[in-house]
Amino acid sequence: MESKPNLPRYPANWGVRFLCDCKKLDKAINIHKGIAREISSNSVCILSDHQICQQKKIAMHVMIPSLLSDAPQKIVKIIGNSISTMVKEGMFLTEIEFLHFEEDGLKVLEKNLHQRFDPHYYGQTAQQA
Question: Radius of gyration (Cα) for the chain, nearest Å?
């Protein structure tokens, strides 16, 4: 597998819904909820009450809150692979590497990360106008 560059991770508190295939553990497949605590354009750390098995493919929706009060949140659909899980705050913190984005999900995520965390973003957009 091709190694992905280490991109900066940003603090977040964004909602995440995910499907975890727990068939091998004789558990039903359910939609679980969590919080994206750190996120980049190639990975996320999800805090959840559900332990995600390592090296499993995960289908997820990352809900990006709007910067405008009357605009709806953006939902980015992603397929990822769980890398590691540790216990934190009495819950499970799982690192997920992104494998595939649906539609323009990568562009939406990158744009929102830049808008929120890149101090030069608004200066660059003003210069382009």
Answer: 16
